Amino acid sequence: MMDELDRNIINRLQLDFPVCDHPFAVVADQLGTSETELISRIERLLDDNYLTRFGPLYDAVKFDGALSLCAMTVPEERFEAVAEKVNAYSQVAHNYQRDHQLNMWFVLATETQDDLDKTLVAIEADTGLPVRNMPKLQEFYVGLYFKV
Amino acid sequence: MLACILRFDSEKTVVKQIELDREIILATQSGLPLVSEPYQQIADQLGVTAELLKARLEAMREDGRIRRIGVVPNHYKLGYTANGMSVWDVPDELIQSLGERVGKQEFVSHCYHRSRFLPDWPYNLFAMVHGHSREEVLEKAEKIATLLGEHCRAHDILFSTRILKKTGIRIGGRR
After folding, report:
1. Do residues A71 and A113 share a domain?
2. Number of domains chain A contains
3. By residue range, what is the domain housing residue B20?
4. What is the pTM of this model?
């Protein structure tokens, strides 16, 4: 279970973590706790899976990589088999089932645009289903702030 | 001649920086060490000074390669179990201002302009909405609808029913 300090830590650390010699000490001070307590709390929150990661969050697109959101309409009876085929591609970073005619939505992440195009063609050939490629044209906001 | 040498030197510096940045990414994309001086520890590991490491992190944060440094909560575990991808058809010429306004809503985690697939997929604005229940997500989507007003020509919301894969995006190591 989480207590108030855990919640304060999660809320505070969704904002920027300082880049300085003793960053945990700085944040601990803001939260009214000690550096060692803060570090052990973060460790526990990670172990208990309340947090999935702690560190710099990189923007893959800024590294000449290619990213795209793709969607497919998969017949219900073939869903599991197609999911297995799609997931087998290391270029597939996330894959979600959604309640819509377009019922499979996945994110492709590759080093180059050429890789991405080839992967799309390969997935289509492998599954025999058309893939809709919906790359972002513009990003308005990305930020996961969940107040707890 | 001198100018030529200087330019050569600065190009070398840039190449070195790119290589160092790549090493920093590889060393930190799975997380920062949970020790009193995390940057010092990574710097030692890479054989550079903590000053240089901190400067490169600041530079990457400045130019957007690092979105932020911090934690990523497991929103499912925190009770945000419902997630709906809300999609909207708005006029292209207004998408800039409308997209920015939708993106500013505190319950929207991602907001993008994407291409339409006509005729059956007229939506060009995507906003991911999170909540503790489907009802809460629908209420929030309703707020987006109100905000878009008459500019919203059609919309839909696609709830996720299952995570099929979630490995995340790894960069820097995919040569």
Report:
1. yes
2. 2
3. 2-62
4. 0.79
Instruction: Judge if B94 and B145 occupy the same domain.
Output: yes
Residues B38, B96 within the same domain: no
Q: Which two tokens stand for residue A25?
A: 């000490």
**What span, in angstroms and rounded, lies between the C-alpha atoms of A31 and A15?**
13
Determine the pLDDT at residue B23: 93
CA distance B38 to B50: 9
B98 and B55 part of one domain: no
- The number of domains in chain B is 2
- Distances in Å between the alpha carbon of A23 and those of B3, B21, B48? 41, 21, 19
- Chunk chain B into consecutive blocks of 10 residues (it has 175) and report each block's average pLDDT, rounded to whole numbers: 54 81 91 97 97 96 92 88 95 96 92 92 96 95 97 96 82 49
Using an 8 Å CB-CB cutoff, list chain A residues near B21.
none
**Torsion sign over Cα A52, A31, B34, B32:** positive
**pLDDT tens figures, A63-86:** 767 889 999 999 999 999 999 999
Residue A74: domain span:
60-134
Distance CA A49, CA A29 (A): 25
Residues of chain A under the 50 pLDDT cut: none
Q: Which B residues, 19 through 78, put their C-beta within 8 Å of a C-beta on chain A?
A: 25, 28-32, 34-40, 50, 54, 57-58, 60-61, 63-75, 77-78
pLDDT score at B143: 97
